Amino acid sequence: MMSENITSESQQIEEIHQETWGSPIGYLDGVTDGCIYGWCYSGIVGQAQRLTIKVDGETVSHIWADQYRKDLETAGYNAGLCAFMWKIPESLRDGAEHSISIYSTESAEINNSPIRVFGTPLDTRAVQKVSGGPESLLLSNLIVNPELSGIESIKKTVVKGANTVAPSWELFSDSDSAGYIAYWPMVTEAFESEYLTTVRLKSRKTVKLLRIISNFNIPNCYLISPTQFSLFYKNHNKSGSNQLVVKIGITSDDGKFSAVFKDKITLSPLEGRDYSVNIPANSLNSLHRSEGTLNILLECSGDIDIELGKFSFGCSLKEKVFHQYTSGTFEDSIIENQYQELIDFALSKALPEKSNLQKWKCYPGQQLPEIVVPVYDALEHVQICLNSIVDNTEYPHILTIVNDGSTPETAAWLDNFGKDKPWVKVLHNSDNIGYTRTINRAIRESTGSSIVLLNSDTIVSNGWLANLVEVAYADDDIGIVGPLSNAASWQSVPDIKDPSGAWAINQLPAGTSVNDYASIISSFNFTNHPEVPILNGFCFFIKRKVIDTIGLFDEISFPQGYGEENDFCFRAIDAGYKLKIATNTYVFHSKTKSFGVDKRKELITSANSILHEKYGKERFKSLEGILSKLDILEEIRNLVKNH
Known about the structure:
The protein is α+β, with helices and mostly antiparallel strands. It folds into three domains: 9-118, Immunoglobulin-like; 135-315, Galactose-binding domain-like (Jelly Rolls, Sandwich); 369-642, Spore Coat Polysaccharide Biosynthesis Protein SpsA, Chain A (Alpha-Beta Complex). Helices cover 24% and strands 31% of the residues. It has 15 helices and 30 strands. The strands form six sheets. The protein has a seven-stranded mixed sheet with strand order 24-23-22-25-28-27-29, sandwiched between helices. β1 and β2 (35-41) form a beta hairpin. α13 packs across α14 (617-627). It is globular. This is Glycosyltransferase 2-like domain-containing protein. InterPro entries: Glyco_trans_2-like, Nucleotide-diphossugar_trans. Residues 371-482 form the Glycosyltransferase 2-like domain. Keywords: Glycosyltransferase, Transferase.
C-alpha cells in the first residue's frame, strides 16, 4: 500500500493524458481466487481513493485503491495506481449468501456494487449438501419418485431429439444410435441399505455417442468456494472398461457449447460407486456475465449398460466426502434418536414394493412443500385438521405447527402429536402474538420449497397437496394457488352467498364425507384453473420465490389476520405473479370464530380502510365484477348442485 499523496515524475506526465474532475469513479469487477477486485479513481491526480467495504449493510473494512494495473494506466487513470483487492474473510464461507458493497464516499457506491457471494467452510467433513445458497445451484437430481416426476416406470427407447428422463435431465444420441438405447427407472440398493431411484441405460449395439444433459441457471452470485458435482453410477457390463466423460460449461444462444471443466470416469466391469468432483469457483465465476445456459454433460459411447442416479450440483466441499452416519456421531442422545427416527421414516417411505414401483412416495433429498398450521386453542378442530393431513397427504411434505400461546392442554397435545413424526415440527410462541406475526415466524424458520398456509379449522381431502403442487408449477408465472371449499368467499361451492347476502357456509350433505365431496368435484375432470385477482387465505399455496420477491405478510397493518392475504395477493400480482384456483381440489373450512361478531366487524372495517387507502377503492370495486363472471366456477357450482 502507498500513502494518500502520490508524487512521481511519471504521474506528472500522466496529468497530460487524464482529466481531473474532483469526484470518484470506479467499478467492482468481481471475484477471483476468493478476492474482490476492482478499481476506483479519486478524480484528483496523484491522490488515492479510500474505500469502505460493507457486508450485508455493515461496515467491515477500509482499503485504499492504490494498486497498479496496466489497463488503468493505458486508460489514463492516475498512472494506473487506482486498483484494489480485498480478500473475502473465511467467516463468509458459512453456507449463506452475502451482499458486499464498495463505497467511495459515505453514500456513493462504485459501479457494479453490490455483488453477492456464496461459499461454504473449506474444512467441512460431515455433510453432503449445504442448505441454502444460490437458487441456481440448488440440488437437481434423480433422487425422485418416478410417479411424482412424471417418469413412467416402463422401458423406453431413445428417439431423435430430446428424451426427458427426469426433471432437468435429457438424453440425446447421435442419429445412428437412436432406437438402439433403452432407458427406464430402477430402484437400486447402492450401499448398506441406501435405496436410490436410478435411470438404467442399455444399448443393443455399439453406440457412437450418448449425451445426458442437465440445464442450470448461470450462478446468480459469485462463488468463493468450490462447487461439488456428484453422482452414483453402476456399470452392468461384465467385461471390458468404458468411460463416462463429464463436462461442465455454457451453451450460447446459437447452440455452441464451451466447457470450463472436464473430467473422465473409468467404468470398470460390474462396479458401482459414488463419484464426486469439485469445480473451482473461478471456473464458474468466469461465466457470471455470460449469456446462455449452464450445462452439465455426461457423454459415453460403445457398449452401454449403466445406471446413473443421485445427481447433485451445488455442494461446496474441500475434498471428496461421503455422508455416513454411525452411532455415536452425536453427543446429544436425544438429537441422535431424532436423526435415526427421520432416517427410519424416510426409508420406510422410500422402499417400494418390488412389484409396483409406483408406490414409492418419498426419499430424503427432495425439495418439499412445507405446510404451516397456526394454532390458537380450539383443540377439537385442530385435532381433526392435523389428523386429516396425516390421513390424506401422501405427497412428501414438511408439516410445521405454530402454537400461538394456547392453553397448556393444547400445547401438550401438539407436542405429543409431533413426537413420533420426524417430518413434523412444532413451534411455540410464549405469548399470543397474533395470526400474522405467527405465520411470519413460521415462514422465516421454514425450509420448504413452497409454503402452504392452512387454517387449523380445515379438513383436507385425498390428493389435495399433490393437486395444488401440480397447478402451481404448471406455469413459472403462477405464484399462489387456492382450492375450492365450502366456505371461502368466491372459492365456495355450491353457493357463494347465503339468503341474507352474507358469505355462505355450505354444509356437507348428510352422509357425505369431505373425501366423498372432493371425489365428486374431481370427477368433473376440470383442467382449466382460472386466474383470479384475489384468493381466500384459509388455504394458501405460495411458491418460495414469491416470498423472496415481495417479502412477508404485513404484520404491522394487519396483526390479527384480517386483510393480510388481500394485501399479499395484490403485492404478488403487482410483482408479476398469477393467482389460480385449483378447480380439481376441495378443502373443507369449518369457520370457527376466534373473535366475537363486534370484534370481527371492527377488524374487517379497519383492514378495508387500510387496503382502500393503499390500493384505491376502484381496485376493490372491480373484484366482484371479475370474480362473478368466471364461467368455469359457475359451471362447477351448477354441477355440484345437480349431482
